[in-house]
Amino acid sequence: MASSTPYADQALGWVRIFGGVLHTDRPLPGLPVVPAADDGQFPFWSLITTDVHAAPLHSPGVDITGRLRYASGPEVTLADRAGDPEVVISDTGRFTIDAAARRIRHLAPTGADRAAVALDLIGVVLPYALHRDGAWCMHASAVQVPAGVIAFVAPRGTGKSTLAAACTQAGCAIVADDVVVLRAHGGRLSVTPSGVPLRLRQDTARAVGIAAASADGWGKILVPGTLVSDVLPLAAVYLLHPAPSDNACVRAERTTRAAALALLTNGKIAELLGGHSAADALDRCVALAGMTRVYDLAVPRDLSRLPMVVQALLAWHDTPLPEPTHA
Q1: Domain spanning 138-316: which CATH class is it, in words?
Q2: How many whole angstroms separate alpha carbon 148 and alpha carbon 320?
Q3: Which one of 23, 196, 214, 311 is most buried, by most CB atoms within 10 A?
Q4: How far apart are CA 87 and CA 273, in angstroms?
C-alpha cells in the first residue's frame, strides 16, 4: 500500500515513522502527520519533552558504551541506565528509551532546533530502539520494484538518494531514505518503510529531471513520488561504486562473508554500538547476508546516464519474489 500523507513543516500530535505512529508533544518538522493512532503497527512510541536550561549530560554513574561524531560536529554518546538506554546528543539533548512503556523521554536544552531533533530522532534514537528490538538499520536509500525492495548503499553524498530519485522518475515508489530497516522472517528479509521524505539538493534534482521547488533549511527539496506504507520483502542490496562516464552498468554479487561485512560497516548506528556489541552485530549481519543478495554496482559518473542504470535495475528485478516459507 502507498500513502499520499502530506509532510507538515510543524508536525505535532501523531506522526508516521518506520511503519508505525509516534505521538509527540512538540513539533517535529518534516514528518508526516496522521489524524490519530489509526493502526497499532510497530513502532508505537510516545515522545515526551522537558526543557532544561543547559545541554544535559548522562545520568550520574552510568557508563558510556558507545560514541560517534557527526561530520557536522555534534557528538553522540550511548549509555545504559538500569536497562533504559540513554542517547545524549550534544546539541539536542538526552533521549532516554523506555522500551517497556514504548516511551522516549527527551530532555531538551532551551531553544533546541526542532528540525535537528527530528533528524536525530529518525537518524539515531529510533534506529537504536529498533536495533534493540531485533532489527538491523542500514545507512541506505530504498525503492519498490516488482520483485520487492532494492536498497542503495553508498557513503554520504555519493549518490544513493540521487539513484533512488531517478527510480521514482520511472514509477518506483519510495520506501526509505537514509535509514533502511531490515527484519528477518521466514528465511527472508523484509523492509519497514521509513515514512521519511526523499530530499535532494536543488541542482541534483534538476539534473535528474525533477522540477525545482522551495528548499528546506538544509537547501534540499522534497522529491515527489508515491510513498510505501507496507512492510515489503527485500530483493537485493546494491553497494554503489562510481565508474567512468562511458562504463556500462554492471553488477557483481558478493559472497556471504563479504555481504555480511558490507551490512555491518554500513549499519546506521554501528559505530555507536561500541565494542561490547561488536560480536552480536557481526553475527546478526552474517545471518542477514544469508537471506538476501548483495551486489557491487558500477554507476557511471554521469547523471544523464542514470535512466540507463534504472532500466537495468528494473530488468533485473521485474518478477515478484515467491512467497516465503514460514519457519
Answers
A1: alpha beta
A2: 7
A3: 196
A4: 11
Q: What amino acid occupies position 173?
A: A
Which residues of the chain are under the pLDDT cut of 70? 1-12, 35-43, 157, 212-219, 321-327
HSE-CB of 227 using CA atoms within 13 angstroms = 24
Residue 217 CB partners (closer than 8 Å, separation 6+): 115
Instruction: Determine contact, residues 87/77, Cβ cutoff 8 Å.
Output: yes
306 vs 106: CA distance, rounded Å: 42
Concatenating the DSSP letter of every residue in 189-256 gives EEEE---PPPEEEHHHHHHTTPPP----TTSEEEPP--EE-S-EEEEEEEEEEEE-TT----EEEPPH
158 Cβ contact list (under 8 Å, min separation 6): 240, 242
pLDDT per residue as tens digits for the range 64-116: 989 888 877 889 999 987 778 999 999 999 999 998 888 999 999 988 998 89
Encoded amino acid at 270, one letter: A
Distances (CA, A) of 142 to 191, 284, 291: 9, 21, 17
